[in-house]
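2024-03-11 09:14:02 INFO worker-7 job=invfold-0412 stage=load source=structure_tokens
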């Protein structure tokens, strides 16, 4: 009998589909093989890892970064563009870990910087930051603890010297050279300013400008005052002239007659008669009558405007005319003064305009002198500070303080245990994989061929033929199940449940 294609595909799926129980069963049957492979892989790899991974000693030095206003680190002083604390710490860490510091350290110790030595230093040296603290921790790993400690200390010393040289300019072409250049520039600026003032006949520009402005203001004020006084004097003179037109130039001074003299003579005569005669004496009475008659004549006003008349200059007109002439004289004098002041005002304005035209050049030269002098002063301070820093021991007068120098460590660190554990896991995994593959192959190899099955009787109908299914032969499949059960008991049980 022959089997149909559907029977073969069903048997193939039954062979290929394995679950966790099948894998455990295969691994259990291949346990000795797995253990053997594990030891064969683990022992040489573990020995190689143990021998290749030697213990190393890590020496460390701690540095304190101080935020000092006198430090030359950018942002440490209070200028614009201030660095944040993290930026300063990161900058210091990068500088400490830079290849230039290692190269300088090698040159100081050995006289040369070999690339292999630089590579070794780069692999073993590291810089870390303490969290929430201004500490830098420099470490170096080496199989020799003394070498590790000495290397860290040498790198830290080279870093401190290089940092001071970097920030202060160093010995060659640094602060001193810049100071000399700044002083030359300052002298050149001062010479240009002196030449400018000499060419323009200026001794003190600010004083002369202020004096010219003050003189201009004074002349302007005096000119305005003179013009005002002249106008006032002319107006007063005109008013006096208008008034004089209504006042006569000459007036009648007085009228001279003898009535008053006669009356006085009669009174004198009466007094003489009274001394010689009685009051009722005829001569006295006669003189008295003459006196009374003359008094009545005067009282009646018949003597007014009678007699010799005298005329002259009107004193009021004369006084007003004198005032008018005085005001006209004042007006003329003030006009002449205003004219003179106007000429002086033009000269003062010309001087002020000349100085103001020169002010921009003067300010530019003055700013250049001030800026270059200030730069020279600042560089002189930096040069003195740099000299003092270079003369002091590393870390003594800087914003970086050595908190603790590296000492030879007593405890080593090694990755041997971790490497051996990793080798064990690797060996076990590889052995388990090989054991499963070997067990699966053996299972497929020892599995018997399925027994042929006779086809069921077919009817002539094509529809019945296409839907007919082969009937299993229980007698033919029974020996196969019994053999499988004796070889792989677990797999046999799984096959029966399916």
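2024-03-11 09:14:09 INFO worker-7 stage=emit residues=498
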């Amino acid at each position: 009998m022959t089997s149909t294609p559907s029977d073969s595909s069903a048997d193939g799926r039954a062979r290929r589909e394995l679950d966790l129980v099948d894998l455990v069963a295969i691994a259990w049957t291949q346990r000795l093989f797995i253990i053997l492979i594990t030891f064969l892989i683990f022992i040489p790899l573990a020995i190689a890892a143990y021998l290749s991974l030697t213990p190393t000693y890590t020496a460390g030095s701690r540095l304190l970064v101080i935020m000092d206003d006198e430090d030359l680190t950018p942002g440490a002083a209070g200028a614009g563009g201030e660095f944040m604390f993290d930026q300063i710490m990161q900058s210091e860490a990068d500088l400490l870990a830079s290849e230039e510091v290692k190269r300088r350290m090698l040159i100081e110790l050995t006289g040369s910087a070999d690339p292999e030595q630089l590579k070794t230093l780069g692999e073993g040296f590291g810089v870390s930051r303490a969290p929430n603290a201004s500490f830098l921790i420099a470490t170096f790993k080496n199989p020799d603890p003394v070498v590790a400690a000495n290397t860290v200390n040498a790198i830290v010393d080279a870093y401190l010297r290089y940092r001071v040289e970097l920030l202060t300019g160093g010995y060659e072409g640094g602060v001193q050279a810049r100071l000399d250049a700044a002083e030359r520039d300052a002298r050149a600026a001062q010479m240009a300013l002196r030449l400018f003032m000499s060419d323009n006949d200026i001794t003190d520009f600010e004083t002369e400008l202020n004096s010219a402005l003050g003189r201009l203001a004074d002349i302007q004020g005096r000119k305005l005052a003179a013009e005002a006084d002249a106008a006032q004097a002319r107006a007063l003179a005109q008013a006096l002239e208008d008034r004089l037109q209504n006042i006569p130039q000459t007036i009648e001074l007085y009228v001279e007659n003898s009535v008053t003299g006669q009356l006085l003579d009669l009174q004198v005569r009466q007094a003489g008669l009274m001394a010689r005669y009685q009051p009722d004496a005829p001569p006295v009475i006669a003189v008295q009558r003459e006196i009374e008659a003359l008094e009545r004549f005067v009282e009646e006003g018949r003597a007014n405007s009678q007699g010799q008349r005298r005329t002259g200059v009107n004193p009021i007109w004369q006084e007003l005319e004198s005032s008018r002439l005085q005001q006209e004289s004042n007006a003329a004098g003030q006009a002449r003064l205003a004219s003179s002041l106007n000429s002086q005002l033009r000269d003062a304005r010309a001087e002020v305009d000349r100085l103001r035209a020169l002010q921009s050049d003067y300010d530019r030269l003055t700013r250049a002198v001030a800026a270059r002098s200030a730069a020279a002063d600042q560089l002189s301070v930096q040069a003195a500070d740099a000299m003092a820093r270079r003369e002091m021991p590393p870390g003594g007068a800087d914003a970086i303080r050595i908190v603790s120098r590296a000492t030879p460590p007593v405890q080593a660190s090694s990755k041997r245990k971790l490497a051996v554990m990793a080798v064990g896991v690797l060996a076990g995994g590889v052995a388990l994989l090989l054991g499963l593959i070997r067990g699966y192959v053996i299972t497929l190899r020892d599995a018997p061929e399925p027994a042929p099955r006779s086809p069921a009787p077919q009817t002539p109908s094509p529809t019945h033929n296409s839907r007919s299914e082969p009937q299993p032969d229980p007698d033919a499949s029974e020996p196969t199940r019994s053999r499988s059960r004796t070889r792989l008991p677990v797999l046999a049980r799984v096959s029966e449940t399916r």
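2024-03-11 09:14:09 INFO worker-7 stage=report msg="The first strand starts at residue 57 and ends at 65."
2024-03-11 09:14:10 INFO worker-7 job finished
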